[in-house]
Amino acid sequence: MELLITGASQLVTLSGAPGPRRGVAMREVGVIENGALLARNGTIVAAGRSSDVERLPAAKRATVIDATGKVVLPAFVDSHTHLVFAAPRLTDFEMRIGGAKYEEIAQAGGGIASSVRTTRNAGREELAARAFHYAQHALSYGTTTLEVKSGYGLDAETEIRILEVVRDVSSAELPELIPTFLGAHVVPQDTPRAAYLKLLTHELIPQVSREGLAEFCDVFCDRGAYTLAEARTIFRTAARHKLKLKIHAEQLSRTGSAVMAARMGAASADHLDCVTRADIAVLAKSRTIATLLPGCSMFLGLAYPPARRLIDGGAAVALATDFNPGTSPTLSMPLMMSLACTQMRMSPAEALTAATVNAAHAAGRGRVVGSLECGMQADIAVFDASDYREIPYYLGMHTCSMTIRKGKIVHSARRP
Ligand SMILES: [Zn+2]
Question: How far away, in angstroms, is 125 Cα from ligand 1 center?
Fold first, then answer.
């Protein structure tokens, strides 16, 4: 089963040293003009100039995709989403437009608590149908790997149901769904704090690990959510149960959670709107990816995280959508790249690195996807563009014409 994609205006390989990219290395995206790529059984076996790749014996028997006038790049990795929920929060949306603050929206029954209410009441099929629809939507933006968090259940039954939905919806026709247990999203309104923490550490984390329902454990450490000490306790329990770590850190206030996560070897610290210079120095020396979520800043009308200081300070920066029903209702990685360039002063090359290679490391898939090199999985996005910089340039325009996962076409746009 050979697949040849040839004649691309640009084949953007993102090839380079193994591991996440930092500093000036984030600007080296590896553009090959008139490029081609050959895959066999879902794995990339050659990438280079069309004239060289087409000459290979295996290219002769391959199915051919003509990429003339197109940009071919690694499919996006969206390493932070809350994909499983029951309903959009349209009342919150209107209240916020009208000037209501976070606390007023919460008092009116909105916010995360309202998503918890609707998600608890939703049946398994309803949640699965929605998750399937959204995951399919992600393919149309060129995304083939999606991290998916629980966190709108906040009781044993619904948290497990959400993770089971992620498992049951997964298929070769969708992006890979990587499950994360976010039972520690906020403290539920109907359970005392200490009792809920005990449920998390004594029952749910052990169960999730035992049943293989999640790969990561995440905590929202912020005012109104979990304290640093609570986050540390949850992390220790998760690590003991062989779950990898992620954290919602330094979003609304500076808590010290990014440094704690870096010291405990977390895969990523996400949001980081309020990081300090000292925090950045610790992140730069760690394996923890700094994942920025500009969709959230845009949708809430808040300041953007300091991408420039993070990159120039040596942190490995990734971009993700934070797709969720309240604060970032988008699955468009190209839009995240546009916001990164226009609002956070990242260069198009830095934004592309952040949405592919570095995002793959944030999702624990850095050795599998994120670049177009021999031995990597053939997860590929094809865009109607002759230069990769057009992807963030055409703001909110839908330019992904084909998405390929493991060498198979999983999305193909009809010409407008
Ligand atoms: Zn989030």
Answer: 24
Q: Determine the distance separating the centroid of ligand 1 and the alpha carbon of 80, expressed in angstroms.
A: 6
186: CA distance to ligand 1 center in Å? 11
**Alpha carbons 169 and 166: distance in angstroms, whole number:** 5
Number of Cβ within 10 Å of residue 414's Cβ equals 5
- pTM beyond 0.90: the answer is yes
d(CA 162, CA 389): 37
The CATH architecture annotation of domain 77-362 reads Alpha-Beta Barrel (3.20)
CA dihedral 270, 275, 278, 284 (to 10 degrees): 30
Q: Residue 377 in 3-state DSSP?
A: strand
Q: How many CA atoms lie within 13 A of 318 on its CB side?
A: 31
For 2-74+371-412, CATH number out of 3.40.30.10, 3.40.50.300, 2.30.40.10, 3.30.1780.10 equals 2.30.40.10
Other CB atoms within a 10 A radius of the CB of residue 164 amount to: 18
* CA atoms of 159 and 204, how far apart (whole Å): 9
Domain ranges within the chain, ordered by starting residue: 2-74+371-412, 77-362
The dihedral built from the CA positions of residue 118, 120, 125 and 127, taken in this order, carries a sign that is: positive
Strands of 336-407, DSSP E: 380-383, 400-405
Cα(391) to centroid of ligand 1, in Å? 24
Same topology between domain 2-74+371-412 and domain 77-362: no
Residue 69 and residue 285: Cα distance in Å, rounded?
41
Q: How far is the CA of 248 from the centre of ligand 1 (A)?
A: 6
Over residues 151-161, the pLDDT tens digits come to: 999 999 999 99
386 CA to centre of ligand 1 in angstroms: 34
pLDDT tens-digit readout, 341-391: 999 999 999 999 999 999 999 999 999 999 999 999 999 999 999 999 999
Ligand 1 centroid from CA 8, angstroms? 36
C-alpha to C-alpha distance for 235 and 266, rounded to whole angstroms: 9
Q: List Cβ<8 Å contacts ≥24 apart for 64-67.
A: 64/4, 64/5, 64/6, 65/3, 65/4, 65/5, 65/6, 65/382, 65/402, 66/6, 66/7, 67/5, 67/6, 67/7, 67/8, 67/9, 67/36, 67/382
